[in-house]
Amino acid sequence: MEAPSGLVEVAERRLDFLERLVDGALRKHELVDELGHSRSTVNRAIDELEAAGLVAGETDGYRTTLTGRLLARSYRRFLTVAADVDAATETLAPLGPGVEISPAALRDADTYRAAAPDPYRPLERIDGVLAEADGVAAALPALPYPRLLDRLRRVADAGEPVDLALTDRTYRHARERYADTLGELSAGDRAAVSVADGIDVGCLVADETAILVVFDADGGVHGVAESADPEAVAWARDRVRSLGEAGRDVTEELAAIREARAARDGDTGTGGTGRGAGSAGGSGERSDNDARRGGIGDADVSGFDAFGAPPARGGGGPDPLSAQGFVALDDGLLGGDADPTGPLHATPSFAEVDAGYVLDRTALRDGSRRSIADRLIEGLAAGDDHALVGPAGSGKSTVCRLAAVRWHRSGRGPVLYRPGDEGEPFSATDRLRERAVAAEGHALVVVEDVVDADAADAVGVARGLADRDDVSFLFDAREERYDDPDSLPLNPSDLEYRRRIESRRMPRLDERETERLAAHVAELTGTEAVADPGALLDAVRRPEGDRPGELLCLVHHLVRTGDLLDDAPSTAGGRDGNSGETDETGLEASVSRAVRDLTERPPPTAGVAVLANLLNVAGVSDVREFAYALADDETAPEAVQRALDRLSGTVLVPTPTDPDRAVHQEWSVLFLERLLEREPEPVVARRVGRAATRVLELADDPARRSRIRRAVGGDAPAMDRIERDPEAWAADAVRAVYGVGRRYPRLAGLYGRVRYSWIDLPDACPADLRDRAPEWVVRMYVDAGDLDGATDALDAWRPANEAGEAERQRGYGDVARRRGEYDAARERFDRAAALFSAADDRRGLAAAVRGRAQAAHFAGDYEAAYEAASRAHAIGAAVDDPIAIAKSLMDIGNALDALDGTDAVIDHYRVARGLFETYDDTHGEANVRTNLAVARRRRGELAAAKREAQRALDGYRTVGDEHREAVVLLNLGAIAEQRGEVGEAAAHAREARAIADRVGSDLYRAFAVSHLGSAAQLAGDLDRAERYLRDALAAFEDLDADSRRAMVAVTLAEVELRRGDLDAAERWLDRTESLLDEHAGRRRLAMVNRNRGVVALERGDLDRAAAALESGLEQARAGGFTAVEARALADRGRVAAERENTETALDRLTAALDLGRRIECVRAIVPAAEALAALLASHPDPDGLGVDAPGPIGEGSATDPAAYRDLADRWRADADGVAADFTASGSEAG
Predict the structure, then answer these.
(1) In this predicted model, what pLDDT tens digit does every residue of 1153-1169 receive, in sequence order?
(2) CA distance 503 to 582
(3) What is the pLDDT, as a whole number, of residue 1043?
(4) Do 595 and 710 have their domain in common?
(5) Is residue 296 in a domain?
(6) For the domain that residue 10 is a member of, what is the CATH number?
(7) With 60 as the cut, is the pLDDT of residue 278 above it?
(8) Organism's domain of life (predicted)?
């Protein structure tokens, strides 16, 4: 490289002088004043510049020559460019040397990287710029996040210019996944889409802002550089234009997609179908029947309206809000037909709410009981958006409807209401915003199931109107989905806005609320209230999170006492609330009787019942219409009608205005579950398959659709919908049918094992969906924990493409990991990751890499776990998935915890917890708190550990995760055991064992029994401890869990040590090492070496004891295992005492006492205190020893043996009265 010339060196050194003299001539003393330099510095600078010909002296002072002026300006530009480039270095790091970027693109740019602590900041910047843009030009090698296309579509819809250039691969991916959005985008009058080569860095211009988008090797966003400098904007705009002009224009190709969609959906109108055609936005009134008509969703349970109410015939098109499920509350809607008993069977209509037929639910707050709806109204009236969160069957939609009706009746302002699973997917955000803003008074918008994909855009509208005090939003959300938003279809800004939404939880029923409900039901039905509502409440309590809600169960009990159900007579015991009768009059018993009765009847009753319940769980209306799909040459329509009549009062609870009204979905879920329990799985799968296939085949068979029209008397809205677009209907219907099992994995048996699936997909089903069904079935079995079923399904699945094979390999990996086959799991996850990468599926890639990290961690390969978790973190950031980021941070923290136990572990957990809290992921937050509790306990911070564990326990109980609840109970037991609180430790273990028995987890039961053994060992009940531990060992052997067997074996070694059987102890230690093999972590190694040291000490082999204890101490300190460290210190003190090295023994024993006292470790404190007492008692002159009094011992007692004996007695775990507690609520053998 050529060295810079002397001229350049002078300019660099004296640039401030040159730049100042460009503006005008100055004398030397003036330069001293202007620049603040000394006179000598000014003299030297002028001499150098004059000698170089860059300045010249004139009568009025010195000024730059032409050369000096040119060089000053050029060099300043160079420094500016260098500063811009330097600031963007990290952002540009993934780009190769051949990437074409002008320095102008970086002029005054702000850079943002996808890295902690704010890894999604780049996406927020992009989304924020696009949200308010009046024109966009972009050239992209990949999509930064999926909703970017929707942003561009909205700009194009507004008539603004949109120029989009994509690489061929990205275009094909977007056309396949987001065809409708691209088609609508390209139809804009000022929109153009092209496919171009040479797009190696993202370039985006929105109005007067330019953004460079840099992607990493995995296709994720690495960072962005954002500039509003005119040169940067001009360069970016020219870059996009040149790429677009050089590429292939695909605008017309994409416009054809929109034209096809318009042809499919454009024949909608407002004329008479026998139902009110009014809407949320137009004239007329929409019937409550139509307001409840729902749709069916994707296989991940999001809603869609393949079976929804058809648009009315004739006239102009409907208001988009009405077509997409919104209804405006008005007096006509509230004054419709109302059935007093309707809310006892199904979600109430608005007319039934207005008539007072629903209970105004209350909850205790600050010592007084208040209406939940009124509290919501108060907060909404103050302008705060709210979310009402609760489990299925808890009554949250009823509370939302009551709040909406009261808001309307109060005259505050209009109410726009979108029931769950209603209409088409909501996308008319601009129309909703306009309606809300233009409303007179304070507008209330209520959206049920807002976390579903078809309703989620409402969150963005709420965010956009957050600063207005005359518009409020009320959202309803199912708890299990709200608390685990792994796949929420929200953009980064909407996810961030969820923090500002006031979340309120549906409270559990208490005795007072049960009394109110009983009186309410008695008033509606004209019957006598039950005598003991509290006994009924006890009967319906359900700890399992996936069971029907307590409210649903309780209402069923109360309705049965009034003889309002047709399936069985009530009994006096049930009427009186006799608890001994609850099993016979309960919801489960009622459903079981219905299953028996319907399946024992001749065809087609069972088939119609199965289909009706399947469609009800899928959120489908028009059940009666679809039931006639089961009519054929052997089954007359009249037989179907008789079967439907038999379902009245159980599955169907018709009203004069809604003959298709069905029971609560949870009743149907329980029906299908009981059906699987009653009949062999292949029989049920065949029954379900036949019914589902007959419905799906309607997409291919116009003749059968005509027969259904004749059977129902001509008006067949569902058949109308199919005929408008059979292919679109078939796609939605297939997703809906399989969505039932995806939402409720315990119903996987309905679909067979892939090998004998009886559901035939129609010819109209799109090709890209045909390979999804086996994938969905596999995931059902995996999520349900049926590993044999999952394996059978995986073996039978033959994917048609790379993406399908990737999912299949990931499924095998999940099964292997859950079985403890960690090497096989890692191999499967590696295969899946390679296939996901080849298919350009980054979300799948992130999941596969996380799976590999977890498998490596469980296998004890913590370095590999750390590497995989770190990669998963990078991919999660790239795909704009903050929950995936949080989970990977937790995995990284777990790996670090196993590797070195530094403070970095806590830091990772804290960041992960912050993300989970930010996005209201209660389950994820509980997971982090569980890990934090373990890490805190390991460090001896027991008070903090207990706080974290208690909060984790609250979180798991909130979301209903009993498996994790058992884990936290065992952690709380371990904390109590470390403190010597044996009774509390045993109680936690017993409770965990009861949960394990209830959920059928052999693994957690084995954990609980081993904890009982450890507590018994601490209490000195060695025989009982051995029985428990051997039972746990056998259970772990059955599970092939070697690391867990090693855990038990080392505890059994300690039992034998306390008995004095050194040979037996050594055999258990040998077994421990053989089980651990090369996967021994520091904790296990520290425990084994410490115990080997104690065995050697008891044998009198002091050298061997010292070496083993030293090794154990090093491992404990390296891993941060303070309890093992304290015990090893005490044992090393005993070795020194045996060697008569008194000073060393005193130092080690007092250190063990200090550490043991700090971490509250009874197993270290007691032996250390006893050893100190014995050492001082045997010394001829204890007062002459220089003993530094340990923390719990006063200075005056530092050499008093009695003080240490008292200390040991105070901390000693007392076995008196504890033994009986071990067997409470369970057998002694565990």
Answers:
(1) 888 888 888 888 888 88
(2) 35
(3) 75
(4) yes
(5) yes
(6) 1.10.10.10
(7) no
(8) Archaea
Calpha distance 15→45 (Å, rounded): 10
- Please, which pLDDT band fits residue 428 given cuts at 50, 70 and 90? confident
Q: Cβ(148)–Cβ(128) under 8 Å?
A: no
Give which of 1212, 1136, 1211 is closest to 1174, Cα–Cα.
Answer: 1136
d(CA 558, CA 576): 10
The per-residue pLDDT for range 737-761, each reduced to its tens digit, is 888 887 777 788 888 866 666 888 8
Structurally, the chain folds into a number of domains equal to: 6
Residue type, 1181: D
Q: Per residue in 215-274, pLDDT tens?
A: 987 777 888 999 999 999 999 999 999 999 999 998 887 776 666 555 544 443 333 333
Tokens of 98: 């051949």
User: Which amino acid is located at 143 in the chain?
Assistant: L
User: Structure tokens of 700?
Assistant: 């291919």
- Residue 16's domain comprises 6-87
Do 195 and 58 belong together in one domain? no
pLDDT mean over 1122-1151: 89
Name the token pair of 912: 């992960």
Computed over every residue of the chain, the mean pLDDT equals: 78
**pTM greater than 0.85 (yes/no):** no
Six-digit token string for 806: 């990737």
What is the CATH classification number for the domain harbouring 211? 3.30.870.10
Q: Which pLDDT value is given to residue 973?
A: 93
- Determine whether 1166 is exposed, middle or buried from the number of CB atoms within 10 Å of its CB (0-12, 13-18, 19+): buried
Instruction: Please give the angle made by the CA atoms of 361, 362 and 364, to the nearest 5 degrees.
Output: 155
Co-location of 325 and 467 in the same domain: yes
Q: How far apart are CA 433 and CA 158, in angstroms?
A: 14
Question: Is there a contact between 920 and 499 (Cβ–Cβ < 8 Å)?
Answer: yes
On whether residue 799 sits in a domain, the answer given is: no
pLDDT (mean) for 893-897: 81
CB contact at 8 A, 165 and 140: yes
Q: Are 881 and 856 in contact (CB under 8 A)?
A: no
The answer to the question of residue 942 being in a domain is no
Secondary structure of residue 560 in the 3-state scheme: helix
User: Could you tell me if residue 566 is inside a domain?
Assistant: yes
Q: Which of 657, 668, 807, 641 is nearest to 747 (CA)?
A: 668
Q: In what order do the strands lie in the sheet with 471-478?
A: 327-328, 415-418, 443-447, 471-478, 386-390, 502-505
Check if the beta carbon of residue 311 is closer than 8 Å to that of residue 751: no
Q: Are residues 448 and 572 in the same domain?
A: no
Q: Quick one: pLDDT at residue 756? A: 60
Q: Which of 505, 528, 558 is the last residue of a domain?
A: 505
* In contact, 836 and 806? CB cutoff 8 Å: yes
Alpha helices in 1077-1199 (DSSP H): 1082-1099, 1102-1119, 1122-1138, 1142-1159, 1162-1178
Q: Of 742, 765, 799, at which residue does a domain stop?
A: 742
Gap between the Cα atoms of 1144 and 689, Å rounded: 78
Q: At residue 523, what are phi and psi to the nearest 5 degrees?
A: -65, -40
- Read off the pLDDT of residues 353-384 as tens digits, 9 standing for 90 and up: 988 888 888 887 766 788 899 999 999 998 88
Question: Which one-letter amino acid corresponds to residue 216?
Answer: D
- Are residues 575 and 721 both part of a single domain? no
825, 817 contact by CB (below 8 A): yes
Residues 336 and 465 in one domain: yes
Q: Work out the average pLDDT over 925-931.
A: 86
Q: What percent of the chain has pLDDT over 70?
A: 77
Give SS3 for 263. helix
The domain that contains 1098 carries what CATH number? Answer: 1.25.40
Tokens 């307001």 correspond to what residue?
A: 291
Residues 1194 and 1089 in one domain: yes
Express each pLDDT in 86-112 by its tens digit: 777 788 888 888 788 888 888 888 888
- Which residues have a Cβ under 8 Å from the Cβ of 397 and sit 6 or more positions away? 347, 419, 420, 448, 476
- Cβ neighbours around 1182 below 10 Å, total: 16
The owner of tokens 């998963």 is 872
